[in-house]
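Before drawing any conclusions, I looked closely at one protein, both as residues and as discrete backbone shape codes, quoted below without any editing:
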Amino acid sequence: MAMQKAIDTFYRILEFLLIFLLSSMAVMVFVNVVMRYGFNSGLNISDELSRYFFVWLTFIGAVVAFREHSHLGVETLVMLFGRKGRIVCMILSNIVIIAVSAIFFWGTWKQAPINASMTSPVTKLPMIWIYGIGFFTGAGIVLIALERLIRLLTGRVTDEEIAAFAGENMSLEQLSERA
């Protein structure tokens, strides 16, 4: 119970980080647009940081969305199967997700020395701070998928999780938002 509370707190912090990144990005772009059109000037750091915030927002958001079963799925196909068929689909999809995320992590690892040796043009940040987010995303998704796979293989998956995988736990409004 304490472990689950810690995990939930971690994801709550990530959600606040996502809010911070998105709002900061919006403010920087807005201020830059006003400065360019109103005062014929701009902040170069704003352009660069808003791009980096967008990268971080995307990759951190991918981990949060994966935890919440919010990524694209093929619910119309999965809904046709019974419980055992859905579990097989869940096992196969988690194996594929683990493989792809591990490759992504490995690619980030191989690219890290190059990114660590390069700096961004304006802020002079080492590029590993920008592209190193691939470590977090790759490892985060692998850990979530491994945990799900272990629970699937040991029979500890709940009907609620299977329904979430099949898209059955969503209202019509939520389903239309995903389309």
